[in-house]
Each structure stands twice: as C-alpha cells, then as structure tokens.
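Researcher: We plan to redesign the surface later, but first we want a full-length starting point. Tokens attached.
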C-alpha cells in the first residue's frame, strides 16, 4: 500500500511540473511579441542648381597702342547665362601691369560699360555702334581698380539671358606729358552670384 501511494504522488508531481513548464513557454512567447505598423514615403529627388556665365566674341585681347589724350578705345563682349537665374552680377577691373594710366583716377583712363539691345557693329580699333537701344550699365569712372556689385539692367541675370556689352575706355584731354610712354594691362572679371538661399 505504501508503494502505490508513493507512485500516485509521483504522477501528480510530474503532472504539476508539466503544467508549470507549459506556462513558462507561454510567458516567453508573450514577452517577445508586439504590434507594428510601417509606412514608406518617397522617393524624394533633390538636385543642385547650375550657374553658368560665359563671355564670347571678346575683342579685349586687341592691343590699343599709341593713344593720346581724347582717344577712346571700344571693345565688345557677349555675356550669356547658360544656367539658372542669378541673384546678382558683379563687375571688377584690375591692373595686372600698372602705370599712371590707371593710378591717376582723374586724368587717367576712364571706363564706361554700355549694353546694346542687339549685337554691336564695328571692329576693334574703330568706334562700335549700336543699331538698337543703348543702355549704360556701369557709368564712367576710373578704369582700375574698380568694383561694382549688383550691376543692374543685365539680361544675363535671368536664365538664357544675353547681353551685348561695349567697354569704352577714354583718356581724358586733361592728361599731360607725364602720361607719355606709359603702359597698363587691364583685366576684367564678371561674377554671377547665386540667388538668396531659402526653403525649396
């Protein structure tokens, strides 16, 4: 009788252990499960702007020699915007080789930049003429050093815009004998600046 009772208790103990083990497995499953929700937006394309400013048909490389007081020197260039719109365009001139011709702001070379609504006519060494409408974009002033920020009236501010420009240098009639035998080499730089940054 003692043996049978012992056997019955063993079966009950084993059954209890089996129930506890099953509950442990269920508890483990509950620990690692969770609700999820996923959504995908896009794709979003981002591209950078392109700024392109070119000068063509320039006659600036033609030397102007033997000038005297009262002479004018005309040179032309076509300015083209081959990219997006600019926020502003700046102009600068410097003297790579300097002399009294550029250091004397009053009696030295004076520069003015004009634009024509059509291409200028005339060759280097002769006066250029405009068959359309002429607009002054940079007024007369010393040739160099000179910096003009935010030049107005230029079509090249807009995409595909084209400007026909004439740079005219004049040696004033007030230039005296001190200006004889002088040489200056003038360089010009036109810079297109991006628009104001903002939210796109």
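Model: Full-length starting sequence:
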């Amino acid at each position: 009788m003692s043996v049978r009772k012992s056997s019955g208790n063993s079966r009950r103990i084993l059954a209890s252990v089996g129930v506890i083990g099953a509950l442990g497995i269920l508890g483990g499953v509950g620990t690692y499960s969770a609700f999820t929700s996923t959504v995908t937006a896009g794709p979003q394309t981002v591209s950078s702007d392109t700024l392109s400013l070119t000068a063509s048909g320039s006659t600036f490389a033609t030397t102007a020699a033997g000038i005297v007081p009262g002479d004018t020197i005309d040179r032309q260039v076509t300015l083209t915007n081959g990219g997006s719109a600019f926020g502003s365009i700046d102009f600068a001139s410097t003297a790579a080789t300097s002399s009294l011709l550029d250091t004397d702001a009053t009696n030295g070379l004076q520069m003015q930049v004009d634009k024509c609504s059509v291409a200028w006519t005339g060759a280097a060494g002769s006066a250029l003429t405009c068959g359309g409408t002429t607009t002054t974009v940079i007024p007369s002033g010393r040739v160099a050093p000179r910096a003009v920020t935010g030049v107005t009236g230029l079509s090249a501010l807009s995409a595909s815009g084209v400007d026909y420009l004439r740079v005219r240098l004049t040696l004033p009639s007030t230039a005296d004998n001190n200006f004889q035998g002088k040489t200056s080499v003038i360089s010009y730089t036109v810079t297109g600046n991006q628009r104001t940054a903002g939210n796109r």
